[in-house]
Write a structure and sequence with these properties.
Blueprint (H helix, E strand, L loop, with lengths): L12 H4 L3 E3 L6 E3 L3 E6 L5 E3 L10 E4 L2 H9 L2 H6 L9 H22 L3 E3 L1 H10 L9 E6 L5 H8 L7 E2 L4 H8 L6 E5 L2 H16 L14
Parallel strand pairs: 7-8
Antiparallel strand pairs: 1-2, 3-4, 3-5, 6-9, 7-9
Helix pairs in contact: 4-7, 4-8
Length: 221
């Protein structure tokens, strides 16, 4: 017997407006925060729609490397769209670059809005006081450089063991995003930008094959 492909039929229009979406690769219906929306351009090319604003019926995929590989190998985007769709061979790498840029942009915006700060002592003080700087707003997540000292990172995370940690970028990349010469530790206050950063970091981890079920789409802040 031939294996049955997952149902990649898009959700009805009324369901598409809600919080759930169907993955074109697995057929699973799940919260959209852990998924990536695609649109098809007029000339038939698959276009990532990370901001979820492009017109037309979206094609949704779990932010997961095996799901992406399956969708590409079995032409599931075309099946879901019911038309020929051109999929770039380097789609995975493109998505990672786009999500990296989104994460760093959100971090930079948070810093400029006074909702994020960096520095070992400043971050530790924020965690001890349960507020970011003098905002009065509790921290939502930590950002730690992947190449930072494990000893120092441990001393920071020990102050807030339940706080989500993003450790996808090295210190030079974080410094550039935060407008500093050097950055290993940063903290982001609760709010819209923290939610955006957490969501995109979760999706990026999934595409890199690093996410667990608890990581992907974590944005309840």
């Amino acid at each position: 017997m031939e294996p049955v492909e997952p149902d990649s039929t898009p959700l009805p229009a009324d369901e598409e407006k809600g919080p759930l979406r169907r993955c074109v690769a697995t057929g699973a219906v799940q919260p959209k925060d852990g998924m990536i929306r695609f649109a098809v351009s007029p000339d038939g090319e698959l276009v990532p729609d990370l901001e979820e604003t492009l017109p037309g019926r979206g094609l949704w995929l779990s932010a997961d490397r095996p799901a992406l590989a399956k969708a590409m190998a079995k032409s599931l985007f075309s099946k879901a769209a019911r038309r020929a769709v051109r999929v770039p061979d380097d789609l995975g790498e493109r998505l990672e670059r786009l999500l990296e840029r989104q994460c760093l942009d959100a971090l930079g915006l948070a810093r400029r809005a006074g909702q994020a700060l960096a520095g070992y002592e400043k971050v530790r003080e924020s965690l001890r006081n349960n507020q970011v700087g003098r905002t009065g707003v509790p921290p939502a997540l930590l950002v730690e450089a992947a190449d930072g000292s494990l000893d120092q990172r441990g001393k920071v995370t020990a102050l807030a063991p339940d706080l989500p940690v993003i450790d996808l970028f090295d210190s030079a990349v974080l410094a550039a995003a935060l407008g500093r010469d050097h950055a290993v530790h940063a903290v982001v206050a609760r709010g819209r930008l923290a939610k955006r950063l957490a969501r995109d970091a979760g999706r990026l981890k999934g595409l890199k094959g690093l996410a667990t079920g608890d990581d992907a789409g974590r944005s309840g802040m």
